[in-house]
Structures are given as C-alpha cells and as structure tokens.
Amino acid sequence: MELDQLQQTVITALEDIKAKDIEVIDTAKLTALFDRMIIASGDSGRQTRALARNVQEEVKKAGGTVNSIEGEDSGDWVLVDLGSIVVHIMQPAVRAYYNLEELWNAAPGRRPDAKAK
Length: 117
Fold this sequence. Notes:
Layout: H1 3-16, E1 20-26, E2 36-41, H2 45-61, E3 68-70, E4 77-81, E5 85-90, H3 92-98, H4 100-105
Parallel strand pairs: 2-5
Antiparallel strand pairs: 1-2, 3-4, 4-5
Helix pairs in contact: 1-2
Family: Belongs to the Iojap/RsfS family.
Keywords: Cytoplasm, Repressor, Translation regulation
Protein name: Ribosomal silencing factor RsfS
C-alpha cells in the first residue's frame, strides 16, 4: 500500500470514531524506522481502544499490514505499528505529558512550521 494512501486510510479511520487533535509528522528525514507518525487523542481508554481497532480493521480492508498493537490493556496510550506509519492514540493527559509532537518537531534541522498535513 502506498504511503499517502495508508496515511489517508488511518486519518479516515480515526475521524470515523471521533478522534481529536489528529497530527501527522513526517519523520522520513529524522529516522529510518518509519516515514510518518500520526498522533491522535481519545477521551477514554474505551475510545482509544476503539480507535486502534478501527485503524487496524480499515488498514487491513484497504490491503495494508498491521505489524503490532501495543497498550490496549490500559488504553491510556495505544500504539499501532503499520511499518511505514506509527500511530499513537493517547488520552489527553498522557499526550500532554509525553508531548511527542514537540519532541519530534524539535529534532535538529526541523522547522516547527514544516508539519505534514
């Protein structure tokens, strides 16, 4: 599955279950591990788990591969590894604490205004 198609599939799956504050970070020049990071918030453990399940189902329906899902037990922070895209679905307090957007956007040579949308 092509990267842009996979990204759009993930965003649509998140929007379908009412994810909040969806952020896409282009990490291709920052790490060789994955090309995009998508971060979204869910209001409860139940919603974060539902969001992760929907991402997994929609990616598989579209012909993509889900490598693994971590964190479903607590639902505070669920990570969905799609290979070229890593999806972080977090409750707002956890997201604020770890502040992944700032961490990845503050990488050397990265302009804060250069977010992938």
